[in-house]
Each structure stands twice: as C-alpha cells, then as structure tokens.
Amino acid sequence: MSYRLGVDVGGTFTDVLLVDEETGSTWRAKTASTPSDQSVGVLHGIDKVCAEAGVDRSAVAHVLHGTTVATNAILEGKGATVGLVTTQGFRQVLQIARSFVPGGLAGWIIWPKPEPLAALDNTVEVHERIGSDGTVIAALDEEAARAQLRKLRDNGVEALAISLINAFANDVHERRLRELAREELPGVEISLSSVVLPEMREYERALTTVANGYVQPQVARYAGNLRTKLASEGVRAELSILRSDGGLSAAEAAIAAPVTMLLSGPAGGVTGAVWVAEQSGHTELLTFDMGGTSTDVALVQGAQARIGRETKVGDLTVRASAVDVRTVGAGGGSIAHVPPLTRALRVGPQSAGAEPGPAAYGKGGDQPTVTDANVVLGYLPTALAGGEITLDREAARAAVQTIADAMGLAGVEQAAAGIIDIVNENMLGGLRLVSVQQGFDPREFALVAFGGAGPLHANALGRLTGAWPVIVPPSPGVLCALGDATTSARDESARTVLRKLGDLSADEFAAIFRDLSESARARLAAQGVAAEQITYSADIRFVGQGNELPVTFDLSEGPGGLAARFDAEHERLFSFTLPVDHELVNARATVTGAKPTVTPLHLEKGDGDPVRAGTTPIYVDGGFVDAALYDRLKLRAGDVIHGPAIVTEMDSTTLVLPGHTATTDPSGSLLIRPTEVEA
C-alpha cells in the first residue's frame, strides 16, 4: 500500500493529512509550527499522523506541500541579492515602474515607495535589440556582456534575472546570455523573462523575473533541506509543491519557477474548501480561512476558484496566475492594542505567532490576542491540537484586562467582546473585497469557514455578510492539508499574440492555443503526469484600450465565443461595452493531471437529537448564557444543534450563536443557518 501526505505549514500550526491511495481513507494531525526550522514541525506532524494510521513512514509515496517560504521571503525582505541584465537604455525599468500610487487623493505624499528587489547598482545593460515582431535589430555584443556579468559577480549577486526588451517575441539573446552567465557566474541561479513570463510589457516582465530570482535560492534551500530531512527520517517520497493557482508541480519545477508559488499556502485551503462544499451540494462559495496569523478569503463560482493574473504579496505585485485570494492581518494570534493618542481599540496586523503565542498558551506571551479574547468569553476549550496545547484561562484574562483598563471598561468580558467584534469587521472587509467590490452579492453564496480559528467566527461572519449556509467542514483546522492532498499536478504555457480577433480564422485561432497546450502537456509528462484536463484563457481588450481582462473559454467557441465572453465580463465590471473589434493580447493554456482518489466522509443516520457533553457559560450579546457542548465525533447525519452551542473537535472549535441552528450533513459538514430560515 502507498500513501499521499498533504502538509500545510502555517504561521502557528502545521497541518498534516494522510491519504490511502487505494481506498481513499484519510487520517489527520495538527502540531505547532517551528519557525526556526519548519522541517522539524513537518516531521513531527508526519510522525503523529503515521502513528494514528498505524503505518510506517516508508509507506508514504508522495508528499504534497503548501508552503509560505516564498511569501515570507518577500514580506520579510530576506530574499537573495539579485542582479538584473536588461537592454541598453532600460537600466531604470524597475525604478520608473508604473505611475500608480496606492491610497486615496494625494496618497503619494505619505506613501513610502518600496525599494526594487534588484538594486540599481546591481542592474547592468547589454547592447542588443529585438523588434516587437521578433526580428534581430542589433546583435548581442558578447564581449561587452561578459564584462557586465563580471561586474555583477564582483558585486556578489546570489541570483541573476535576465529581462531584455521584446524577449517574449524572440528569446535568442536571453538564452545566449544564460550560457555566458553560467561561465562568468558559476553556481548562481538564473531566471529568464522569456521563460518566467513570455508576455509583453517590459516592466511587469522584468519585475516578475527579478521576483523569481529573489526567492529562488531560499526556496531551493528549503526544498532541498526538507527532502534531505525526509529521506534521512525514512520518508523516501516524491516532494511536490502547491502552486499559487491551486495546482501541483514537482519540487524541481517549483525551484525553477518559485514565483508561481507565492500564494502556495492559501491556494491549498481554497482547493480543500471546494472539495468539501461539493459533498454537501454547494458550488457557489465564499471561502474563509482563519489561522493563527492571518485570514485568507476567496470567491468560488461553479466549484471553480477565480484565477487572477496577478499575485500580490505586500507591496509587490507580479504577473503570475494565482487563486484570487485576499489576505487580512487577522488571526487567532492577532494582538489587540489601544494607541494612547486615539484610545481606540485596534486588532492586528501584528501577531503573537507560534512563539511565544497568545498569553493563554503559557509560553511567555503576555499581550492580549484574539485567542485570549475567545478564551475569556468561554468559546474555547482548555486544550487545542488534540491536547498538545493547554490553555491558561487566568493568563488570558490578565492579558485582556490590560485592554479593559486602557479603555476604562468595567469588565474584562466587555473588552474581549470588543476584540472579537473588531476582528470580525476586519475579516468582513476582506470578504467584501472578493465579493461586493467584484460585483457579486455575498448573499448568493455559501460561506465555507475553516482554519483553526475560522469556525469560532464563522457564524458571526454569516450574520455580517448574509451568506448562508455557513459550512464548517469536518476537521476544518487541517483543510489546507486536505487541499494539498486532493489537488492535481498542473502546468501552464502563455505567449503574447497581439492580433485582432476579427483577423484570425478559426483554424489560426485554434492552432495558437493547441501549440501552447502541447508545450504544457510535454512539461507535465516530463514529471510523469498524464494530462487529464486542458483549460484555455486569454487576455482580451477592445481595440484601442490600454488594459485587458482575463477570460476563460472553451476552444470550440472560437474567436466569436471568446469575444462574447469578454463582452459579458466587461459589462459586469464596467456596465458598458464598445461596438469595436477585440484584440487578443495574451493566450494561455493550462494542463491539469488527474485528481487523486479521496473517500468522502459519510456519517451514519442519526435521530436528529445529538447527545450533549454538558453545558458551559459563554458571554454573548452583552451577557452570559449557558451553551450546550457537543463532541463533533459523536454527531450523526441529520443531527440538529440549536444555538447557543459549542462543538469541539481535535483541531478546531465551532461556535453556534443564539438564534441559529447547525445541521449535520451526511458528508460530515456542519451547515449553520438562522433558525427562522431553517424553519
């Protein structure tokens, strides 16, 4: 027998899911993350889940990993020293950038412009020129190029990005420069713009290529270290990394193009949420993943996550396909504070993380966090992660009391309730970004809540958004790991076309996309994966427009069908269309392998009246009430839980508010709705 292992490393917890590849049976484990060396937490989690399943480590054939190592390198500014080679006359391409300043009116006055990932001192020019049609206008001066490369070597660059003007149309000079760089800078990782992003727009292409080089050495070290540690501990499995668009790639492919995995961690959660929600018959979803450090939200239509063409991490925006996930600095470890000047309570984005963690963890933390507030209000049991973490209620009360004192509140519960209200509003803002601000009504979607802290806040977020039912999956704390284990290998090919749709015959149109799909199919085959599904998309604009929209379509629809889909999307976003032709800017083909077999949970039929495990006082809506306690493992299909109630399990706790009802779906999910709607 062989097993697949899904691993998701978060800021606070590491989640592990083991899947029997023959039967689809699953086992789950949760352990504290180890920021100093993430492989320690990963191996501890593997030990726990293998012991739970009664199997040896050597039986694990595939390790599927969602990681934030590339994201953290960007956020913390701890990437490599990158050298940039560009065409003569374009040395300041990253400094000039685009004339867009975030923020409101006159935001440029207070906006600190971030430093480019490749310093100007480490940017060199080479004499060459390729035309926009791919013709060689000026040949590459190789001797001068060698001199420039030696300059970068003397500057101590750790990674090299090569981004020449119009290389998307002809990469001959970039490929030759790579050969020269291997001679002049041996051992330095090299990224080519014609490989990383073979599309027009020199700034976006250069920035994405530099970002690829910036995180590449760190990703290579992390993946190499993890593979070595796994092998030394008897886990001789193939390592695959989750991509930002929700697909998998082999570790070697991820190391070659780490810019495709900047949102690796959040993408796994969305994939898992879609899989679970489908079991209960829901395909229109808002996903809500609340962990210890942050909350990730996304919108899903027709069981397909919305894929964007930009990946945003901090101040950095690169051109790479990614699940349209928005991140809010709100998690269980988010620290509450009262600034002396305003005396207005704020929560986050600073987090206590895993070390020392919230005050309730008893690891030396003394600052009030969202977790401490939940403890004070009675929402959390005394143990988390299957007993691995014991909560100190008195330490939590002492921490939250500092907020009550700073605000002049009479009771610590009032301060705790204020913390919860504010963090809920913060997360509502994220949900509005992916719904209302994109033209979608959240009331037309179900809300899937997961992550260790998500089910505690899910019912309140349902009230704020009007999204019903609120779906709490079984083992919600390890759902990201489930997403890692249930996703498929994926590869993508793209290129710039710049042709009017009206000038393309159906055969020419189809040939462009079939060539791209064959290229992606070949790379996937090199990883030992057969293609199961091909998805086509394109960046389209009206002729004369400066910006385009990404549109997914069926190849059989032809140019006319693609134009119609673009018109519908343009109308939805901007409320108008234009009576002019359309221009095909970029074409893409995404090839996906087969999905693994995972057996859905199926509960026995119950009598609708679950057995209580007792009652506990909780503070809600300004006073204490008695909440019924339930053990989730003892729930059966059709069981109905009336709020106020608390449902406990190994990796998470679900809060059902007064006036709401949770029904247990046969697939194991809790479906929460207002009681009057349920009736």
TrEMBL record:
Domain Acetophenone carboxylase-like C-terminal: 507-663
InterPro entries, A to Z: ACX-like_C (IPR049517), ATPase_NBD (IPR043129), Hydant_A_N (IPR008040), Hydantoinase_A (IPR002821), Oxoprolinase-like (IPR045079)
Coiled-coil residues: none
Superkingdom assignment: Bacteria
Chain ranges of the Hydantoinase A/oxoprolinase domain: 205-488
Domain Hydantoinase/oxoprolinase N-terminal per the UniProt entry, residue ranges: 4-184
PANTHER family: 5-OXOPROLINASE RELATED, HYPOTHETICAL 5-OXOPROLINASE (EUROFUNG)-RELATED
Designated name of the protein: Hydantoinase/oxoprolinase family protein
Organism: Paractinoplanes rhizophilus
